[in-house]
UniProtKB/TrEMBL annotation:
Amino-acid positions noted as binding substrate in the UniProt annotation, renumbered to this chain: 254
Protein name in the entry: Aminomethyltransferase
Keywords: Aminotransferase, Mitochondrion, Transferase, Transit peptide
Cellular-component GO terms for this entry: glycine cleavage complex; mitochondrion
MF terms (GO), sorted A to Z: aminomethyltransferase activity; transaminase activity
Catalytic reaction list: N(6)-[(R)-S(8)-aminomethyldihydrolipoyl]-L-lysyl-[protein] + (6S)-5,6,7,8-tetrahydrofolate = N(6)-[(R)-dihydrolipoyl]-L-lysyl-[protein] + (6R)-5,10-methylene-5,6,7,8-tetrahydrofolate + NH4(+)
């Protein structure tokens, strides 16, 4: 998942004199394809930026490196953002997401401990399966969204956003210290010695099957591995933790690999002609088309899971247990009484809407704000998401979006904007 804030049109325009004509043209393509990423050119070699172990590989393969959440990351390669976005929907894309923060919680009380901080039913997960969840604060606001995998009854693997790493670790650490003082058996291990790759798209499973040894054996292993499930696998000689998940709306895998083996695994994956190296700009366009939230845009500490349309992440057992997580009583009250605003999608005309674009009724009354917006490379339309007053949140409601002082037509639209062909268990696929 990408974790940062989105630039306004004014910020983009302010960069143009610094970039020059050629830089402005490249930046214009970025701004057209995705409105969610802050980037500035010319500072990717800043000594203060962290680099993944694949940095040199990215540069050698034409990666345009930009500062992102304290890291130097590829925003794009040699193909256009439009092309790379469509390729992920049709073939497969490989993303370096090693800037994400992975950690493990172990111990007899690891599940009990983490359930005090997140809304998900971790005890109810099957070993080897995972879920999207959120960390909440005392007000029910979202500190971060996260993928949590139950490796075993005494081990949880957690991935949090790069931009939230410091505050997440401080938050977890504070509560961990208190838990240990009460005698709870739980410990935390950071996985800074591992890299994370995301292989996404309809051809991804075939690529992983070949890395497992090819033939029918690899295909059979993956046939029994469904969305959000976790396995330890040897891929191209590397001992990997593989989760069938991703941030594009496509079937795919997130692969945690020891950093010293990340390059060899990447090279092995790229031997498959279906796979293209893909940067953060296309990743952002893909997640928006899939209706997925970006922390810092669509989620923050003043937005609750209920307002964000993420109430489904609150497990039934957690509700029956009395919402026994941080801020749970606030969330419980919101579910009982309703909330005044809701996250919705829009299809818009005119210029692409950006974060903070005002949403108005046809008579000009402001009823909300866009949090993410871009031109959809796959739909060839302007799409966006944001928060509006609940009385105008119904799909099909005509509204207006204000971009640079001009009003354009917008229609409230159900998300995801594109189909999401996750590889789910048959009974789950029907839901």
């Amino acid at each position: 998942k990408v974790a940062t804030t989105m630039s306004s049109s004014r910020r983009f325009l302010s960069l143009l004199p610094k970039l020059g004509r050629a830089g402005a043209l490249r930046a214009s393509e970025h701004a057209t394809a995705t409105g969610s990423l802050i980037f500035t050119r010319g500072f990717a070699d800043d000594a203060n930026l962290k680099k993944t172990v694949l940095y040199d590989f990215h540069v050698a393969n034409g990666g345009k490196m930009v500062p992102f959440a304290g890291w130097s990351m590829p925003i794009q390669y040699k193909d256009s953002i439009m092309e790379s976005t469509v390729n992920c929907r049709q073939n497969a894309s490989l993303f370096d997401v090693s800037h994400m923060c992975g950690l493990t919680l172990k111990g007899r009380d690891a599940i009990r401990f983490l359930e005090g901080l997140v809304v998900g039913d971790l005890a109810g997960l099957r070993p080897g399966s995972g879920t999207l969840s959120v960390f909440t604060n005392e007000r029910g606001g979202i500190i971060d969204d996260t993928i949590i995998t139950k490796v075993s009854e005494q081990e949880l693997y957690v991935v949090v956003n790069a931009g939230c790493r410091d505050k997440d670790l401080a938050h977890i650490g504070q509560h961990l210290q208190a838990a240990k003082s009460r005698g709870l058996d739980v410990s935390l291990t950071l996985h800074d010695d591992r890299s994370l790759l995301a292989l996404q798209g309809p051809a991804a499973a075939g690529v992983v099957a070949r890395l497992l040894g090819g033939g029918q054996g690899g295909q059979q292993q993956l046939a029994g591995m469904y969305f959000s499930e976790f396995r330890e696998m040897q891929l191209a000689g590397a001992e990997c933790w593989v989760t069938r998940t991703g941030y594009t709306g496509e079937d795919g895998f997130e692969i945690s690999v020891p950093s010293q083996q990340a390059l060899q695994l990447t090279q092995a994956i790229m031997e498959s002609p279906e796979v293209r190296l893909t940067g953060l700009a296309a990743r952002d366009a893909l997640r928006l088309e899939a209706g997925l939230c970006l922390y810092g845009n669509d989620l923050n500490e003043d937005i609750s899971p209920v307002e964000a349309g993420l109430a489904w992440t609150i497990g039934k057992r957690r509700r029956e247990a009395g919402f026994d997580f941080l801020g749970g009583q606030v969330v419980k009250q919101q579910l009982a009484e309703g909330v005044s605003k809701r996250r919705v999608g829009f299809v818009c005309s005119g210029a692409p809407a950006r974060q903070h674009s005002a949403v108005r009724t046809p008579d000009g009354r402001q009823v909300g704000e866009v949090t993410s917006g871009a031109f959809s490379p796959c739909l060839k339309k302007n799409i966006a998401m944001g928060y509006v007053d609940k009385e105008v949140a119904k799909a099909g409601t005509p509204l207006k979006v204000e971009v640079r002082g001009r009003l354009s037509d917008a229609v409230v639209t159900k998300m995801p904007f594109v189909p999401t062909p996750y590889y789910k268990r048959p009974q789950e696929a029907k839901k």
